[in-house]
Amino acid sequence: MSLAALNSPPLVALTGLGIGANLSLIDQFALTSPWNVVRIANLVSYGINFMSVQRPGRLDGQASEGGELAPRSGKTLVAPAGWAFAIWGPIFLGEMVGVVAPFFIKESAPVVEVLRQTSGPFIAAQIFQSLWCAAFRPKYKGWSMFVSTGFLSATAYSLSRAHAVFAANSDKYSNLEYGIFFLPMALHFGWTSAASLVNLNGSVSMQEGQSTKVIKYVGHLSVLAASALGIYLAKERNAPVYAGVIAWALAAVADGMKKRLDSVDDSDKKKKKASVSVNLDGAKTQYLLSKTGSMINALGAAFVAGSMSASSKAVPKF
Question: What domain of life is recorded for the organism (predicted)?
Fold first, then answer.
């Protein structure tokens, strides 16, 4: 039986619910198992996710092919410009280093205590993202499209749990260890937070007969929520990296809306407004909200990083 045959919405959704119901057991496994077992589990979960991402046919391919999710010609108002997805390179490369490096440190190292606490959420995040790769496909139609939104949100939630741990235990690792083990997770957390909203808006916009008014309001609220979350976590957790990633994502959304607006000439604007595939309703407001949110988060990230440097006379870690 092929993997495609096993990929049914009910089965995949139930698998995700089962993982979610056992997060505490995954955490306990990482805290109590032999260190070698934990290291191998991190490596294996990363490998599963990496291989899942490589399988073609996901809906995000539409963004590069001018489909319904495309910045220039689509329906959704949360459609980042293509350059935004370059962040996956540092995330995957960084997490690859992060799951290999523990094999070269002793279990007695202070950072191991933090790694054990973050390993459970990290493993869960890798599994949830693998399930997202299965769910973000054309066979998921109608309301089943929101299954992928749930998985990406679960990925961000799991990474948030890991982020909370290493943000609260900065005295147990060096700046170098932060860069190796935790910076990639911080990037991943920020990007999946934004990507969850991208996914949500894509699912909303692709519902049959969806009104542009609903798409518009969901898009505007998503940008406002991302902007507020970036600033809130930057302040509460001393997390300039998170706010910086949100700034990056919102700048990409603003660029996507600018491309959409610029692609419409005055002479054929009315015609394209009536198009089924191109949505201009609220695009200008979305551009302004995204650009403003990006600037606020960039300034917030710089302020928090500067405050941390001034108080500790060290390179900020979060």
Answer: Eukaryota
Q: Which of 125, 175, 116 is nearest to 155 (CA)?
A: 125
pLDDT digits (tens, 9 = 90+) for 253-289: 999 999 999 987 544 555 555 444 578 999 999 999 9
Instruction: Answer whether residue 249 is part of any domain.
Output: yes
Tell me how many domains the chain contains.
Answer: 1
With tokens 């690792």, the residue in question is 173
Q: Which long-range contacts (CB under 8 A, 24 or more apart) does 97-105 make?
A: 97/180, 97/184, 98/180, 98/181, 98/182, 98/184, 98/185, 99/39, 99/42, 99/43, 99/46, 100/43, 101/180, 101/181, 102/39, 102/42, 102/181, 103/39
Query: Rounded distance, CA 292 to CA 314, Å?
Result: 30
Residues in contact with 186: Cβ distance below 8 Å, sequence separation at least 6, in sequence order: 163, 239, 241, 242, 245, 318
Within a domain: residue 193? yes
Tell me the two tokens of residue 81: 């410009």
Residue 217 lies in a domain: yes
Question: Using CA atoms, how far apart are residues 158 and 132, in angstroms rounded to an integer?
Answer: 14
Within-domain flag for 317: no
Provide the residue range defining the domain that includes 161: 3-312
Name 169's Cβ contacts closer than 8 Å, sequence gap at least 6: 113, 114, 117
